[in-house]
Amino acid sequence: MNSYRIPEIAKQYTDYDMIRLHTDLPDFPELRARLLYAFLSRDSRLNSSSELFALVTSLVQLGLDTHDEVTVSSDVKEKKAARSRQMKVLAGDYFSSRFYHLLSQAGRIDLIMRLSTAICDMNKLKTDFYLMMKQLKLNAEDYLRLSVEIKSYLFRAFGGLMDETHRLIWPELLSDFTRCEVIFKEIFRCESLNDFEGSWGYWHILQHGSKDERKFIQAGEEDPGKLRTLLHKYNVLSQLYVLLDDQLTRLGNKLKQLDSDKLASELFHIGEPFFRFNSKARLLEER
Which GO terms describe its biological process (predicted)? Predict the structure, then answer.
């Protein structure tokens, strides 16, 4: 496989009129899929399967992410919302079933077992995460750390298959890139106030805010002006930019130390949107 084309291949399993008509899907795990493909395609024992492995892992991740968006309550009376909920359940099941089907067709029962174990372990981690959220036993850094761990868990399962050189650097680089991905998304959640509840900013204010401010955040009241005042007071957006800048600096230094110039170049290319965004943010800050 000479070129990366996982999203295009995945469309034959995800791009259906019925799904588009009735619901929205979460983002395809593009960055993690590209990372996995980059590493597997450079392993002489795995390169022939790199496309398949990256594809099935992305599909099952998309399936799990789709199920995560299903509302907890089934008491949905508005027909359009009820149909969207039903479609998310069915779509998530379908994406996950492709994972089993494609690997069984390829005779890779061993990988089915490996990924199935990772799914079970990840779901346990998610359960603990959601319980901590419900009990308000989470701070902003815990939220970031666990979000990264959950998002990268399935992809990390391939480390044991890689050669020794790649096996040693894969978990750390995967985590570093995923941390950039999570922080990047949190910046936009903060800037637009979409899905603010449960975000990094939400936990940061709960951690540092006054009693009344915490009550306001927990109540989930729709008062954008007051919420923006709190975001400004606690420097939420600027702190997220600092987190991204620090993470990209560490990541850039690690990539420069890689033995393979070709791999380093490809990984820099994968991370280019983050580096470019961070550079623009620095320029705006200096004005």
Answer: menaquinone biosynthetic process
